[in-house]
UniProtKB/TrEMBL annotation:
This is Protein-methionine-sulfoxide reductase heme-binding subunit MsrQ. It comes from Kushneria phosphatilytica. Keywords: Cell membrane, Electron transport, Flavoprotein, FMN, Heme, Iron, Membrane, Metal-binding, Transmembrane, Transmembrane helix, Transport. It comes from the Bacteria. Binds 1 FMN per subunit. Belongs to the MsrQ family. The keyword Transmembrane applies. The lineage of its organism: Bacteria, Pseudomonadati, Pseudomonadota, Gammaproteobacteria, Oceanospirillales. The keyword Cytoplasm does not apply. Heterodimer of a catalytic subunit (MsrP) and a heme-binding subunit (MsrQ). It holds the Pfam family Ferric_reduct. One of its GO terms (molecular function) is oxidoreductase activity, acting on diphenols and related substances as donors. The chain crosses the membrane at residues 37-62, 74-96, 108-126, 146-163.
Length: 210
Protein backbone atom coordinates (compact mmCIF):
# COMPACT_ATOMS: atom_id res chain seq x y z
CA UNK A 1 0.00 0.00 0.00
CA UNK A 2 2.70 2.47 1.03
CA UNK A 3 4.62 1.70 -2.16
CA UNK A 4 1.55 2.43 -4.31
CA UNK A 5 0.96 5.64 -2.34
CA UNK A 6 4.57 6.74 -2.92
CA UNK A 7 4.27 6.10 -6.66
CA UNK A 8 0.93 7.97 -6.75
CA UNK A 9 2.52 10.98 -5.05
CA UNK A 10 5.44 10.84 -7.51
CA UNK A 11 3.05 10.82 -10.49
CA UNK A 12 0.91 13.60 -9.00
CA UNK A 13 3.99 15.83 -8.61
CA UNK A 14 5.22 14.99 -12.11
CA UNK A 15 1.84 15.52 -13.83
CA UNK A 16 1.82 19.37 -13.78
CA UNK A 17 5.28 19.41 -15.44
CA UNK A 18 3.99 17.20 -18.27
CA UNK A 19 0.79 19.24 -18.54
CA UNK A 20 2.62 22.58 -18.83
CA UNK A 21 5.15 21.12 -21.29
CA UNK A 22 2.24 19.78 -23.39
CA UNK A 23 0.67 23.27 -23.42
CA UNK A 24 3.95 24.80 -24.58
CA UNK A 25 4.41 22.11 -27.26
CA UNK A 26 0.84 22.69 -28.52
CA UNK A 27 1.39 26.47 -28.61
CA UNK A 28 -1.39 26.81 -26.01
CA UNK A 29 0.70 28.60 -23.39
CA UNK A 30 0.00 32.15 -24.52
CA UNK A 31 2.30 34.65 -26.20
CA UNK A 32 5.16 34.09 -23.70
CA UNK A 33 5.58 30.34 -23.12
CA UNK A 34 8.80 30.89 -21.15
CA UNK A 35 7.03 33.20 -18.71
CA UNK A 36 4.09 30.77 -18.57
CA UNK A 37 6.46 28.03 -17.42
CA UNK A 38 8.29 30.39 -15.03
CA UNK A 39 5.11 31.53 -13.25
CA UNK A 40 3.54 28.06 -13.07
CA UNK A 41 6.73 26.53 -11.70
CA UNK A 42 6.95 29.32 -9.10
CA UNK A 43 3.41 28.74 -7.87
CA UNK A 44 3.87 24.97 -8.12
CA UNK A 45 6.98 25.21 -5.93
CA UNK A 46 5.13 27.27 -3.34
CA UNK A 47 2.20 24.83 -3.27
CA UNK A 48 4.58 21.87 -2.87
CA UNK A 49 6.37 23.68 -0.04
CA UNK A 50 3.05 24.23 1.76
CA UNK A 51 2.06 20.59 1.18
CA UNK A 52 5.41 19.42 2.58
CA UNK A 53 4.85 21.54 5.69
CA UNK A 54 1.33 20.16 6.14
CA UNK A 55 2.57 16.57 6.48
CA UNK A 56 3.65 16.75 10.13
CA UNK A 57 0.35 18.25 11.39
CA UNK A 58 -1.55 15.70 9.26
CA UNK A 59 0.51 12.85 10.74
CA UNK A 60 -0.21 14.14 14.25
CA UNK A 61 -3.92 14.34 13.54
CA UNK A 62 -4.47 11.10 11.60
CA UNK A 63 -1.52 9.06 12.94
CA UNK A 64 -1.22 7.65 9.39
CA UNK A 65 2.33 6.73 8.47
CA UNK A 66 1.64 7.50 4.79
CA UNK A 67 2.00 11.24 5.37
CA UNK A 68 5.45 11.01 6.95
CA UNK A 69 6.87 8.59 4.36
CA UNK A 70 6.36 11.10 1.53
CA UNK A 71 7.95 14.06 3.35
CA UNK A 72 11.38 13.67 1.75
CA UNK A 73 9.91 13.05 -1.69
CA UNK A 74 7.75 16.19 -1.56
CA UNK A 75 10.71 18.21 -0.24
CA UNK A 76 12.81 17.05 -3.19
CA UNK A 77 10.01 17.92 -5.59
CA UNK A 78 9.75 21.41 -4.06
CA UNK A 79 13.46 21.91 -4.63
CA UNK A 80 13.22 20.55 -8.20
CA UNK A 81 10.39 22.94 -9.06
CA UNK A 82 12.51 25.78 -7.62
CA UNK A 83 15.53 24.78 -9.74
CA UNK A 84 13.37 24.52 -12.88
CA UNK A 85 11.85 27.92 -12.07
CA UNK A 86 15.36 29.39 -11.84
CA UNK A 87 16.33 27.67 -15.12
CA UNK A 88 13.32 29.29 -16.85
CA UNK A 89 14.37 32.68 -15.51
CA UNK A 90 17.95 32.27 -16.77
CA UNK A 91 16.87 30.85 -20.12
CA UNK A 92 13.75 32.78 -21.08
CA UNK A 93 13.92 36.06 -19.13
CA UNK A 94 17.66 36.63 -19.01
CA UNK A 95 18.34 34.81 -22.29
CA UNK A 96 21.55 33.47 -20.69
CA UNK A 97 22.97 36.99 -21.02
CA UNK A 98 25.05 36.99 -17.83
CA UNK A 99 26.13 40.61 -18.36
CA UNK A 100 22.47 41.64 -17.86
CA UNK A 101 22.17 39.84 -14.51
CA UNK A 102 23.51 42.71 -12.36
CA UNK A 103 21.12 45.27 -13.89
CA UNK A 104 18.19 42.85 -13.60
CA UNK A 105 18.93 42.18 -9.93
CA UNK A 106 18.89 45.90 -9.11
CA UNK A 107 15.69 46.35 -11.15
CA UNK A 108 14.02 43.32 -9.52
CA UNK A 109 15.47 42.83 -6.01
CA UNK A 110 12.80 40.19 -5.28
CA UNK A 111 14.99 37.82 -7.31
CA UNK A 112 17.63 37.95 -4.55
CA UNK A 113 14.94 36.95 -2.03
CA UNK A 114 13.89 34.04 -4.27
CA UNK A 115 17.53 33.01 -4.68
CA UNK A 116 18.03 32.93 -0.88
CA UNK A 117 14.95 30.72 -0.54
CA UNK A 118 16.26 28.41 -3.25
CA UNK A 119 19.70 28.15 -1.59
CA UNK A 120 17.94 27.00 1.61
CA UNK A 121 15.77 24.50 -0.30
CA UNK A 122 18.82 23.05 -2.09
CA UNK A 123 20.74 22.78 1.21
CA UNK A 124 17.81 20.97 2.82
CA UNK A 125 17.46 18.64 -0.18
CA UNK A 126 21.18 17.76 -0.12
CA UNK A 127 21.05 17.02 3.63
CA UNK A 128 17.78 15.08 3.57
CA UNK A 129 19.42 11.64 3.46
CA UNK A 130 20.33 9.25 6.28
CA UNK A 131 24.06 9.86 5.86
CA UNK A 132 23.70 13.65 6.41
CA UNK A 133 21.31 13.00 9.30
CA UNK A 134 23.95 10.83 11.01
CA UNK A 135 26.81 13.25 10.29
CA UNK A 136 24.92 16.32 11.51
CA UNK A 137 23.36 14.66 14.60
CA UNK A 138 21.39 17.19 16.66
CA UNK A 139 22.27 20.01 14.26
CA UNK A 140 20.20 18.31 11.53
CA UNK A 141 16.92 19.32 13.15
CA UNK A 142 18.04 22.92 13.65
CA UNK A 143 19.20 23.09 10.02
CA UNK A 144 15.91 21.72 8.73
CA UNK A 145 13.97 24.34 10.71
CA UNK A 146 15.24 26.72 8.03
CA UNK A 147 12.35 25.45 5.91
CA UNK A 148 10.22 28.09 7.71
CA UNK A 149 12.70 30.79 6.66
CA UNK A 150 12.44 29.47 3.09
CA UNK A 151 8.63 29.71 3.25
CA UNK A 152 8.78 33.28 4.58
CA UNK A 153 11.26 34.24 1.82
CA UNK A 154 9.14 32.68 -0.94
CA UNK A 155 6.06 34.51 0.37
CA UNK A 156 8.04 37.76 0.41
CA UNK A 157 9.35 37.06 -3.12
CA UNK A 158 5.75 36.54 -4.30
CA UNK A 159 4.38 39.55 -2.35
CA UNK A 160 6.99 41.82 -3.96
CA UNK A 161 5.82 40.67 -7.41
CA UNK A 162 2.05 40.93 -6.89
CA UNK A 163 1.94 44.05 -4.69
CA UNK A 164 -1.03 45.50 -6.60
CA UNK A 165 -3.37 42.51 -6.15
CA UNK A 166 -3.00 40.51 -2.96
CA UNK A 167 -5.98 38.19 -3.46
CA UNK A 168 -4.03 35.09 -4.49
CA UNK A 169 -1.06 35.87 -2.27
CA UNK A 170 -3.28 36.21 0.83
CA UNK A 171 -4.53 32.63 0.36
CA UNK A 172 -0.97 31.26 0.33
CA UNK A 173 0.07 33.50 3.23
CA UNK A 174 -2.93 32.38 5.31
CA UNK A 175 -2.16 28.71 4.63
CA UNK A 176 1.52 29.27 5.49
CA UNK A 177 0.63 31.18 8.68
CA UNK A 178 -1.79 28.45 9.78
CA UNK A 179 0.82 25.74 9.17
CA UNK A 180 3.40 27.67 11.20
CA UNK A 181 0.90 28.14 14.07
CA UNK A 182 0.18 24.39 14.08
CA UNK A 183 3.91 23.80 14.72
CA UNK A 184 3.84 25.77 17.99
CA UNK A 185 4.15 23.30 20.92
CA UNK A 186 0.65 23.90 22.43
CA UNK A 187 -1.02 23.50 19.01
CA UNK A 188 1.12 20.45 18.19
CA UNK A 189 0.17 18.85 21.54
CA UNK A 190 -3.52 19.61 20.99
CA UNK A 191 -3.36 18.04 17.50
CA UNK A 192 -1.69 14.89 18.85
CA UNK A 193 -4.31 14.63 21.64
CA UNK A 194 -7.09 15.02 19.07
CA UNK A 195 -5.42 12.39 16.87
CA UNK A 196 -5.27 9.93 19.79
CA UNK A 197 -8.91 10.58 20.65
CA UNK A 198 -10.02 10.01 17.05
CA UNK A 199 -8.07 6.78 16.64
CA UNK A 200 -8.99 5.26 20.06
CA UNK A 201 -12.58 3.91 20.16
CA UNK A 202 -14.45 5.13 23.26
CA UNK A 203 -15.57 2.54 25.83
CA UNK A 204 -19.30 1.90 25.97
CA UNK A 205 -19.96 3.19 22.48
CA UNK A 206 -21.18 1.40 19.36
CA UNK A 207 -20.03 -2.18 18.81
CA UNK A 208 -18.26 -2.38 22.19
CA UNK A 209 -21.62 -2.64 23.95
CA UNK A 210 -22.24 -6.18 22.73
C1 LIG B 1 17.08 32.02 -7.88
C2 LIG B 1 15.84 31.78 -7.55
C3 LIG B 1 14.64 32.49 -8.14
C4 LIG B 1 14.52 33.37 -9.19
C5 LIG B 1 15.64 33.90 -10.10
C6 LIG B 1 13.13 33.70 -9.34
C7 LIG B 1 12.60 34.55 -10.30
C8 LIG B 1 11.28 34.83 -10.48
C9 LIG B 1 10.74 35.67 -11.51
C10 LIG B 1 11.55 36.42 -12.56
C11 LIG B 1 9.40 35.70 -11.37
C12 LIG B 1 8.38 36.39 -12.28
C13 LIG B 1 8.08 37.77 -11.86
C14 LIG B 1 7.18 38.45 -12.85
O1 LIG B 1 7.71 39.03 -13.78
O2 LIG B 1 5.94 38.39 -12.71
C15 LIG B 1 9.08 34.86 -10.23
C16 LIG B 1 7.81 34.62 -9.76
C17 LIG B 1 7.52 33.76 -8.75
N1 LIG B 1 8.38 32.95 -8.07
FE1 LIG B 1 10.39 32.99 -8.23
N2 LIG B 1 12.41 33.01 -8.39
C18 LIG B 1 13.29 32.27 -7.63
C19 LIG B 1 12.99 31.40 -6.60
C20 LIG B 1 11.72 31.01 -6.28
C21 LIG B 1 11.39 29.93 -5.41
C22 LIG B 1 12.42 29.03 -4.69
C23 LIG B 1 10.04 29.85 -5.35
C24 LIG B 1 9.14 28.88 -4.62
C25 LIG B 1 9.51 27.68 -4.19
C26 LIG B 1 9.50 30.91 -6.18
C27 LIG B 1 8.18 31.21 -6.35
C28 LIG B 1 7.69 32.18 -7.18
C29 LIG B 1 6.28 32.54 -7.24
C30 LIG B 1 5.15 31.93 -6.43
C31 LIG B 1 6.17 33.53 -8.24
C32 LIG B 1 4.90 34.25 -8.69
C33 LIG B 1 4.21 33.47 -9.77
C34 LIG B 1 2.99 34.19 -10.28
O3 LIG B 1 2.96 35.44 -10.28
O4 LIG B 1 2.06 33.49 -10.71
N3 LIG B 1 10.56 31.58 -6.75
N4 LIG B 1 10.22 34.33 -9.71
Amino acid sequence: MIRVWRVAVFLAALAPLLWWSWHVAMAAAGPEPGRYLLLNLGQGGLILLLLTLSLTPLTRLTRWKGFSVIRRQLGLWTCSYGVLHLSCYLLFILGLDWSALGADLSRRPYIIVGALALIILITLAITSNRFAMKRLGRRWKSLHRFVYVALALVLLHFLWIVRADLTQWSGYALAGGALMLLRLPPAARALSRLGRRISTPRKGSGHLES
